[in-house]
Amino acid sequence: MRSLPAIVSAGALAVFLVTWAMAQTADPRRSGYQEMGASLRAMQDDDSANPGMLWVGEGRALWARREGAAGKACADCHAGETAMAGVAARYPAFDAATNRPIDLGQRVNRCRVEQQKAEPLAPESRELVALSAFIARQSRGQPIAPPDDPRLRPFVESGEALWRQRQGQLNLSCAQCHDDNAGGRLAGATIPQGHPTGYPIYRLEWQAVGSLKRRLRNCLVGMRAEPYAYDSAEYAALELYLMSRARGMAMEAPGVRP
Amino acid sequence: MRVVLLLVALLLSGPVSAQTVVGDAIPQSLTGEPGDAARGRAVVANRQVGLCLLCHTGPFPEERFQGNLAPSLSGAGARWSEGQLRLRVVDAGRLNPATIMPPYYRTEGLERVARAFAGKPILSAAQVEDVVAFLMTLKE
Fold it and tell me: Which terminus of chain B has a smaller tally of CB atoms within 10 A, N or C?
């Protein structure tokens, strides 16, 4: 018999507290976590059962590894296991160099290229997902806090327009499922509200950890719409809109989802 | 003979053929032929082909996972005429512009369709007729 504290990790407790605080103000928003059955929630809550922690561990190892012509590790410049606390909760952020929002994975690659003088990691590669999971884990329990940067506003708006646009052969919009029909059943799956609280997530269907973009890509494929390119402005805008829509909700990374 | 069959297949998989809408119905068969209800049932129950059970329930005891986003298909053949069901399947948006039901036999006015499906309707004219024939058998 394991003791309760071992099962309910500090992170899960923090998620619970933020969720509980939201319930007190009758916030109608629900994380996908709340749509899952007890066994999947237990898998997410217990670090020793959450497969996403494997990627977090790999990310920790990569964090400490010297890479590139500069011979530097992430850890050489960003000290400590909590150097990135709160960072994942406020990405995508505005990037002055490219004049557009970049997400966490793109920000990591910026340091790979400019600081480590190494090749950028491929989008959705095992290494990039692992580093992102290690970083996002440090925001677990913290409220999602997109930057109040006026330069981001047009991108939030274009993200919302994409959210409401019908597309694909099935002629559906994200909003028709995730706003209008959330909580309903699409065949065997409960439609979640579509909040980015858990990313990167371990998805049972993938048998792997993947980014928010990979999840959005799955929905686009399901709508029979052409997925966006991984580094496209469209994904950054959609991610940004999702973060602003989920402002104040608790980060859960690495989440577990069906 | 084989050449003729091939031609027919090309015609059916090409752009959609014209349909005449009368009121809230398409009275004429899209192929000029009646559909096959047994084939229609298979289309409706198939999650990759008809996709109907993603949203609808219906008299399919063998299908464990059915959606609850739309009315049950049970009794559709009693509630609606053949022509009304045909327009509903061809392009439900003409009845309810805000509908989530996909337009099964329309290729115009769709945005960012995935390359594999571009220019193709979700169902062929013959499949639409099979589905309509099956829906007409759902009297209760």
Answer: N
Residue A1 binned pLDDT confidence (cut-offs 50, 70, 90): very low
* Beta-carbon pairs below 8 A across chains A and B: 68
Handedness of CA A179, A180, A185, A188 (dihedral sign): negative
CB A195 within 8 A of CB A15: no
Stated pTM of the model: 0.92
Number of domains in chain A: 1
Under an 8 A CB cutoff, do A168 and B69 touch? Answer: no
Select from A168, A223, A171, A174 the least CA-distant residue to B102: A171
Contact at CB, B51 and A167, closer than 8 angstroms: no
Mean pLDDT along residues A221-233: 96
Length of chain A: 258
Radius of gyration of chain B (CA): 15
The CATH number that applies at residue A164 is 1.10.760.10
- The residue written with tokens 């959210």 in the block is A163
Give the 3-state secondary structure of B21-86. Answer: CECCECCCCCCCCCCCHHHHHHHHHCCCCCCHHHHCCCCCCCCCCCCCCCCCCCCHHHHCCHHHHH
What would the pLDDT profile of A126-183 be if each residue is shown by its tens digit? 999 999 999 999 999 999 999 999 999 999 999 999 999 999 999 999 999 999 999 9
Amino acid in the structure at residue A130: A
Q: What's the gap in Å between the CA of A234 and the closest CA on chain B? A: 13
**Structural domain boundaries enclosing A210:** 33-258
The pLDDT, as a whole number, for residue A15 is: 64
Domain boundaries, chain B: 18-137
- Taking the C-alpha atoms of residue A160 and residue A6, their distance in angstroms, rounded to an integer, is 41
- Tokens 């290494």 appear where? A127
CATH code for residues B18-137: 1.10.760.10
The pLDDT, as a whole number, for residue A18 is 64
The separation between the first and the last C-alpha atoms of chain A, rounded to the nearest angstrom, is 27
Q: Which residues of A are catalytic?
A: 219
Partner A, chain B 54-113, Cβ-Cβ below 8 Å = 54-55, 64-69, 93, 100, 102-103, 110-113
> Is A226 within 8 Å of B55 when comparing Cβ atoms?
no
Q: Is residue A6 part of a domain?
A: no
Q: Which residues of B touch A188 (CB under 8 A)?
A: 64-65
